[in-house]
């Protein structure tokens, strides 16, 4: 992979006449050489492992012991495993709780940020990217503290206002909300910037014409902004589906009393965490691979479905 | 301009990586060239491996120990498994008792310590402890470092405020049985309005279940967790504690647990000997306010660890020399003085160094005798490959009830169902 | 209700500012809280009512962080990993993007379609075999196990191709060829300088992603001297002493380098994300 970008060549002045045949050959292979690194790395660390997952999933595979071929047993085991369905339910729930509000908040903020006369625009835009550069691990630690049942900031505020403490970590819904809050916090600003970019591509004149025709803010938003945003919304829905179904670090870090399963009854264990638990703490590589295959199918299906649905839905004419 | 320099660096790095990729396997062996007097040691946190290593270095300045505290015990065992699978192993590794059976089942991954002289010293250790690292084929893959005698740590100052006795003898008389323990808790909670004990899963279930003669496996190695009377008794005892409303609902080793300990939001923790260091670290300001009393039921063992040498170790000899020197009866006694880890070598249990040891953090309690007494007359049970998993499912079910999320009447069945899913049977 | 409409030229309404300020507060407060706990004593995190101003304990806690885990080493490791990935992605993606945008070769369109399709494949689900491959290469517990897989970025190639297509006219390249420049020279001396801002932002995003990556380093790295900062802050949580001040201090120290970087390049990052990230 390094031959194509030989550093000596780069420093030379424009080439003196070289022998044509050789140059011709180099020129022919050059483009292939330029794209080779990607394909090699993707093959070795992406594609081959992915295909190999399907193979490993057919074994009872102990990394420090035997590998016994078991056919589809891992998959039938998975279908009858309540922990798997629990993790699947949690994953979908957390994904919905984090994606829907995130996209809505981003939409509203992008609309706000799109004012020409907005002061402090640069400040607002930059601030919204701060969560994105904060690591998930740091985010999980600080949010877990703020949402703690007995000693957390939020519950203290709630009790000041006369409410009961909410047990975010141990209850099913609470832990899902907590994780969703972290995911939303991390991504809403980034998504808002993507939306803002698309909004800015809409010529001002269109809005002005609409205003002249008597269209108010909401109508302008529905009939001009939203259609313009459609492709980028599809894009963010698909990417947040792919990302949302693979949430791992937050549930790993928020419930330390029950490592790797996120709560005594696995109330916030996601599929990726279940995969990790089975693979790297129980060392059932075959079973973990089967979970990987199942998750893969889910991601591709859901992303496809999302793409299909969101390209079909068109704003109402009017 | 600047960017160009950077890119030159990258090209070099990329080229170097390309070469590293080709030569990856060969560079591995050459790095151990000067391994004659150094070895790599993986341990876990909380047991003062640094202290042991330093003590050894004082005696053997020629030896270099590359010590890594990988994480907690469970994580260290996981790291060891991935290392065994990945081929890059340490020379010496500490494994906690509950994690050991999985490795004993695959003895081919470890050096049979008999080849290094384990036969000669195995008589130094408690029988039921040295039997744990002994594989079916007779090979010995680990040497015991300590055992986990049991007791109860309590806040004497908080007991006083609640109108309970504070003297450790009298406190022990408050709870000859676990039922009496719960009754004491009710009195405490009624007097103070605060929780008595940190949680039911660790401080009740995991104690009671470790006081029996049979836990999750029968002596022949068959799974009996469903029928074992001790397991059911421990489970029901924990449910009673939850129903009594005396637990702080703080799971061990969590942020809330640590915070509640600092603030005195509970007064009692079941404290196997290795827990003492954790109390000291988490609530340093409570020094002198704690004391230690005999555990209800009197005896039991929870914990204990083993040192093993993986097959691929580069310097098994140096690792063995370390084991032989630090885990001799005298070595374990010295380490007890240092780090409060209880020797697995009964020959020193009457040594004045152990019997006279007092701990100021715990109001001068004679920890040496309290904990060794808890081991006397102990009839140990078999730990099996799935003991950790089974125990985790039971405590999780209890925690769930304690948090008010689960029905106590259904908790046992739920736990059993989960165990079957987890261990596939 | 006032009659003015939020047309582009109109005054911004107060509630727009209120909403934006609320969002900005939400973005910054967790970091501020992290800082507070990281600068006061351990008990602050659990003190109610909470402290709201920083204390003077920062260096004490930071010292604890440095003595509990090899934190300096972990920052160096993260810089090496994220830096190499950032720069490597910028160059490799520009190169591949250049080939796809401006060169003619057999199979080009099919290969490009393949690159785009790989974006939809969640390859990190194959983590078990990935670990096996890393084992087979003897790369467990090494930094190249993080760096090399991180160099491939299909999205980056897609992105650079778009930029190169639109930013560089064929005429310039033609002229260079007539002057006798090789393909490489054309790329390095003409094309790359023109798309350097885009490549810079791409590298920056690659850097941030690599810096914050957790799952893969968590699986691959074993010994503390190989830890990246993210794994180091997880390790801080691990000890039997559950010290929130320590964990928060570590989190803050792990975030600080990126915050500093962000002060300098944040504007370009925002602009980069908005300019190129998505053009429907």
Automatic annotation (TrEMBL), chain A:
Family per record: Belongs to the binding-protein-dependent transport system permease family.
Localization: Cell membrane
Major localisation: membrane
Keyword list, A-Z: Cell membrane, Membrane, Transmembrane, Transmembrane helix, Transport
Native source organism of the sequence: Microbispora bryophytorum
Record-level GO cellular component terms: plasma membrane
InterPro entries documented for this protein: ABC_transporter_permease (IPR051393), MetI-like (IPR000515), MetI-like_sf (IPR035906)
Name this polypeptide is given: Sugar ABC transporter permease
Pfam families the record matches: BPD_transp_1 (PF00528)
Gene symbol of the encoding locus: cebF
Record's bilayer topology term: Multi-pass membrane protein
UniProtKB/TrEMBL annotation, chain B:
First and last residue of the signal peptide: 1-20
Record flagged with keyword Signal: yes
Keywords: Signal
KW Ribonucleoprotein (keyword) present: no
Pfam families: SBP_bac_8
Name listed for the protein in its UniProt record: ABC transporter substrate-binding protein
TrEMBL record, chain C:
UniProt-listed InterPro entries: MetI-like, MetI-like_sf
Keywords: Cell membrane, Membrane, Transmembrane, Transmembrane helix, Transport
Protein's recorded name: Sugar ABC transporter permease
Keyword match Transmembrane helix: yes
Residue ranges annotated for the ABC transmembrane type-1 domain, each copy included: 75-265
The family this protein is said to belong to: Belongs to the binding-protein-dependent transport system permease family.
Membrane topology: Multi-pass membrane protein
Major localization listed first in the record, in broad terms: membrane
Organism whose genome encodes this protein: Microbispora bryophytorum
Gene: cebG
Single GO cellular component term: plasma membrane
Cellular location(s): Cell membrane
Transmembrane segments: 12-35, 75-98, 110-131, 143-160, 187-211, 244-265
Any Gene Ontology biological process: transmembrane transport
